[in-house]
Amino acid sequence: MSLLLTASTVALEQFTCRAMETFQLSSLHKSGDIMIGGIFEVSFRTVIQELSFTSKPGQWVCEDFDITLFQTAQALVFAVEEINNDTQLLPNVTLGYTLYDNCMRLPVALRGASALTLGMKEDITENCKGPPPVLAIVGDPTSTHSIAISRILSLFRIPMVSYFATCPCLSDKWEYPSFFRTIPSDTFQIKVISAIFKHYGWTWVGIIAADDDYGQSAIKALSEEIKDFACIAFSITIPKINDIDKVRHVTKIIKESSAKVIVVFSPAPDFSTLADEINQQNIIGRQWIASESWSNSYDLFDKYNFSTFGGTLGITIHNGEMPGFQSFLYEVQPTSDPKNNLILQFWETMFDCKFKENTNEQNFTSLLEGKECTGKEDIKGTKTAYTDVSKLRACYNIYKAVYAIAHALHNLLTCENGNGPFVNKSCADITNMQPWQLLHYLKKVNFTTRIGERVAFDENGDALAIYDIVNWQQSDHGTLKTVTVGFYDESAPAGHELSLKDDDIIWNINTGKIPESVCSKSCQPGTRKATREREPVCCFDCVQCAAGEISTQVDAVECIKCPIEFWSNVGRNECVPKEIEFLSFEDSMGITLTATAASGVCLSVIVLSVFIHYRHTPVVKANNSELSFLLLVSLTLCFLCSLCFIGHPTELTCKLRHILFGISFVLCISCILVKTIVVIMAFKATLPGNNIMKWFGVIQQRSTVFFFTFIQGLICIIWLTASPPLPAKNIQYQNSKIIFECDVGSVTGFSCLLGYIGLLTCISFLLAFLARNLPDTFNEAKFITFSMLIFCAVWITFIPAYISSPGKYTVAVEIFAILASSFGLLFAIFAPKCFIILIRPELNTKKALMGRDSEKQI
To answer: Taking the chain, what is the end-to-end CA distance rounded to the nearest angstrom?
Structure first.
């Protein structure tokens, strides 16, 4: 077996690889140290030789040379010449090129790719070794051609950089591992349209598409892209067959739809019939979005009213700048080199002449009848699309493609031994470079053009997406023109990819303002979206957030609850601190209660002054003046303690209000209780043989008051030690307010304090009630009974009122109970005495009190 292989190898080394056939192709060529190839569209028509099957078929001939398309071929030549003159990029290396015309036919394009891959020499190379004729190819411009050519080139890992093929399928690196492109994939066009929708807040849009794979895939892709923020009002296709009924049906859908923004994915010829009908029915007030396939075909609509399609926004390939390109186009000169026969064809087409050496004997006679080219014609004197550099969209993509290859070559040539990317960290052999080595560097190319545009390829070989946004506007002559009003740059920072000059845009709306296209207007902050049943998510109602909830964003899906100490404002778009409610001195109610308490203090002090002044009179003496003085002091404290309940609760006031309340009222009730006991004992002492008063003298009376008060003080000390009253924010009672109150702390302590007061009150009331029928000489028991009755009635009524009163009114009820009971005691006990002292002084005598002159006084 090994002998056979050796023999075969020896036999192979005795021969050279020879091409079986060469193609006659229109080309441009320049030799260089490193060669790159190109496949371009230059001619429109191909003449196919007749197949007789009796002789060898002739070569295909390209006709209908297009000088506009020749400009794209010259873009490659211009880029190569510019690189060769650059001392920084590929120094000491001359780039060469071989460029073929595909004549817009796939078989011709495949022949050009084969010629670039294998070369046009009959003897390719000895032993089929050495570098290939070209290391990379620029082109083909069409997706169909690129798919077929890439399948072949991928076998040899020859990089192919297309400047106009947009099919998303070419991003599949498993099928097309060596394919790159400087034009964005159609996938990115969908992103641009989606970004425009987001920019203007259009959430209710219509889609019209051609009835083919391009249109259907565009509908599917756009629907998927905008599903998170927008809805499709209608999605219809344009019939390929000119069916007027279907066209009118589509027009009816457009007219009846509430969507004001409509995007169209269709070539201009397919859209023209529908456009005629739209114009005829005068459907205006729609903002049209043109896909790349017809955004520059505004000449098609010159016959329509500006109000119909004027203001259209279109997505186009980025228009770049190539300084010096126009001058280069003027410098082209005819040559007799057959490898540059495209220049001769261009010259003959440009000046409508023929070169004698470029004609055969058959058409020489016709040449004599026509115009002969001299080669001295002046291109600068012409004004054609060839020298128009205002829209270098395809040319600029070619320019970037050549520079991308050049930068990859530069990185390959500057590889340092010992740090290379290949096996054993090796670098490429400069004398024997292979396409697969260039392919490695092309994947990582990243540079900035002279006009500041970044060029790089992603993992799929796609260039960074850059689109121009154009606006159809009316020129001075009344025709439509396209004006660039923005761009989309995928390489820009996140959120800044789309840039639009809103002030430069003419809108297709009568108002001239940015159109609105929504099923439902946005829900403002303070409301949330509530979807409608059986309708798209973009159709919704705006529901105000509930109390205590807010929404701060437009179109909020749900409302957010405010923190526990915050509440929603009137607009329900902000959480504000809850209103803190307490009974303040500035409050009208607080002022009233303060004034009432002050009047009670004043009255108590006045009565006390009266009693002190008339302390030697029988009325004061007969009613135990010492206990009366102490009772008036305690009543003064009762009035004063109510002031502790007013104002901002603090730790001190919370403790004082309950301690003062408890002790002052116990002191007051203790005095009344002792006075009642004294009345009863005094009556008993008048009985013969009863000397009970000696056991309940002044000292015992004082001790009893002190003892009763001491018990209350002891309760307060234990309460304050265990769990004292403290300021607290009550957020449970009212959602919208914080009630600042004094928390009693220990409920048991507070209950004991109130219970002790209630116990003494009940005992006093019971004793006074039993003594009510004593002789008139000792009639103070009647007044005590009445005062205790008022006291009990007030505090029994207080309980339900206290429980049912909200917020600061709870404290107000408590103050009212203190003041009412204090006034009740003051008036019931001391008003009759003051009446006698001040108004009826004649009754303020011992004789009158003993009842001896009662009849005379009456």
So the answer is: 160
